[in-house]
Amino acid sequence: MLGPEGLIARTIAEQREHLIDLRRHLHRHPELSHQEHATTDFIVEQLHLLGLTPRRMRSTGLTCDIEGQDPTLPKLALRADMDALGIPELTTVPYRSEVEGVSHSCGHDVHMSAVLGAAIALVRAADAGALRRGVRLIFQPAEEMHPCGALDLIGQNVLDGVDSILALHCDPGVDVGHIGLKSGPITSATDPVRIQVRGAGGHTSRPHLTQDLVYAVGSIATQLPAALSRRMDPRSGVNLTWGSIHAGSAFNAIPSQGVLDGTLRCLDHDAWDQAEELLESVLADLVRPWGVEARVSHDRGVPPVSNDAASVEVLSEAVRDVLGRGNLDPAAQSLGGEDFAWYLEKVPGALARLGTRTPGGRTYDLHMGDLMIDERAIGIGAMVLASGCIRRDLPAA
C-alpha cells in the first residue's frame, strides 16, 4: 500500500499533462494586477471539480480549504500569485499570450499550476485519510503592484486559523528538478522612492541668480546612493538605484522643477526600518548648498522575505524525499522584492526557488518577454509543496 508521499508522487505523475494544460491556459490568458477576474473564475472552476468550496475575495483572488482529519489543528497555507505583467510576449510558442502587451513573464502561471497540482494530490491524500492537518490554498492577486495584493488579502483574514505558509518562485537560473532554499532573508526589501526638486529657475547665462536645479538633481542622483552606502551597515546591502530622472526641456533654461524616481532595496529588516528617516536627513544635507527645495516620497513596499528555519527544514526534507539529496541547492539572497514577505510578518513559513531552466539550455531572466519555462517544473513544484504539507502534518517522532 502506498504511503502518503508515494500517493502524492503517483498522483502528480498521473496529472503531469493536465497540469501543463492548466499552465498553458493561464499563460494564454494573462491578466494585470487587480484585473484577474477570468483567472479567478478559472481557478474556482478547477477547485469545484475537486469537490472543494473556494471563497472569492472582495475583487479578485480566492482561498480554499482542504480539510484534514483533525479540524482542531491550525492549517498550513500554500500561496500562489496570479497577476501578469505589462510586458509583450516575444516567444513563438503555440500557447503564447493572446493579450496584447501582457504576459506571464514572471512565471505566476507556473506558481498557480503548481499549487493546483498540490491541491489535486492533497485532496487524494485527504480522501485516503492521510492528511491530518488541513491546508488552505491562497491565490493572491497583484503581487507585481504597489500597494500589493498580499496586504489586501491579509486584511481579509486569509491567515485566520493558519500557523505557517509555503510558496514557490520560479528561478530560471536553476536547472529544472532542483529546488533552492535558505533560512533567513532570501529576498530584499523593495521600496519605490520619488524625489521632487523645486527651485527658482532662470536663464543658463545667469546661474548665480537662480537656483541651479539641474546641478542639484545631478548631485542627488550621484551622491545620495553613495551617502546611504556610507551611513548604513554595508552588510545590510542598501542599494538606491534610479530608473527615471527628468528636469527641464530647453538647452538654455534652468528649470524650476525636476523629479527622480528609483528603488531603495535593503537585504536586512533592521536597515529597512531605519532607511526612511536616514533618507530624508541625508537628502536635506545634500541639497542645502544649492538652495533648492527637495521632498522625498518613500513608500514602504515590501520587507525582505525571511524564511523560518523550521519551515525550510520541512521543505528540505520533502525535496530530499521526492527529488533526492543532490537536488536541494543553497539559495542566494536576491535583491528582488516579493510580497510573500508580508505573510511571514504574521506567521512563519518559507519561499523556495523552483528551478525552471532546461539543463544545458539558455538561462532566461524574469520580467523579460522571451522567458521560457521548462514545464517539468510544474509537477516538481506541485510534488514538493504537497509533500511539504504532508511532512508538516506528521506528528513529532
Topology diagram in text:
Layout lengths: L3 H11 L1 H13 L8 H13 L5 E2 L5 E5 L8 E7 L26 H20 L7 E6 L8 H7 L6 E14 L3 E3 L2 E2 L3 E10 L3 E2 L9 H19 L7 E9 L5 E2 L2 E10 L2 H19 L5 E6 L7 E2 L1 H14 L5 E3 L9 H5 L4 E9 L18 H18 L4
Parallel strand pairs: 3-4, 3-5, 5-16, 6-15
Antiparallel strand pairs: 1-2, 2-4, 6-16, 7-14, 8-12, 8-13, 9-11, 10-12
List keywords for this structure.
397 residues; alpha/beta; Aminopeptidase; Alpha-Beta Plaits; 2 domains; eight-stranded mixed beta sheet; four-stranded antiparallel beta sheet; 10 helices; elongated
Distance between the termini: 22 Å
Reading off the top of the CATH hierarchy, the class of the largest domain is best stated as: Alpha Beta
- Tell me the number of structural domains: 2
Tell me the fraction of residues in β-strands, as a range.
15-25%
Describe this structure in words.
By secondary structure, this protein is of the alpha/beta class. The protein folds into two domains: 4-187 and 305-393, Zn peptidases (Aminopeptidase, 3-Layer(aba) Sandwich), CATH 3.40.630; 189-298, Alpha-Beta Plaits (2-Layer Sandwich), CATH 3.30.70. Helices cover 35% and strands 23% of the residues. The protein contains ten helices and 16 strands. The strands form four sheets. Strands 1-2-4-3-5-16-6-15 form an eight-stranded mixed β-sheet, with helices on both faces. It has a four-stranded antiparallel β-sheet with strand order 10-12-8-13, with helices on one face. A hairpin with a 5-residue loop joins β1 and β2 (62-66). It is elongated, with a radius of gyration of 24 Å. The mean pLDDT is 94.
